[in-house]
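tool=predict chain=A
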Amino acid sequence: MLTTIVLGMRIHNVSPEAAFSDPGREYLASEPGVPLRCCLRKSRADEPVWLCRYSPSSGKGPYEEVGPIFLHVECPDEPSLDRLPVELLNNPRILRSYNAAGQISDGEVVEPGSFDRAIEGLFNNPEVDSLQIRSLSHGCFFFAITRS
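tool=predict ok
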């Protein structure tokens, strides 16, 4: 299930192969309900996943962050990269904007149902190059958004 398209937006997911850049990754044979950054949905029972460290490309220098993410071991789905994935946006999330130099420009907590408006509002600033959606409780990276 997906929301309406936010015009001029592109979603950036994380390839399952990113797990292999983390030698400390953990294999989990079944971890239902975790947010998957590859297909942008929650995991189902008996779907093997990786828990690994990941650094999104948006932040640079002192704004570069590394944190835990979940990825399928073998991803069965292709996410829609022009629509917001509702399954990962059913709780309040942190929305951060970054400039082209990779510095945080702005950030806000966004409630379910308000993501389209918040994204459009942040992209009204011409200096905003990209956005990150993050967990409110743990700060973990979910996905990035750029202008298409």
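Strands lie at 9-12, 26-28, 35-36, 41-42, 49-54, 67-72, 93-98, 104-110, 130-135, 141-147. The longest strand covers residues 104-110.
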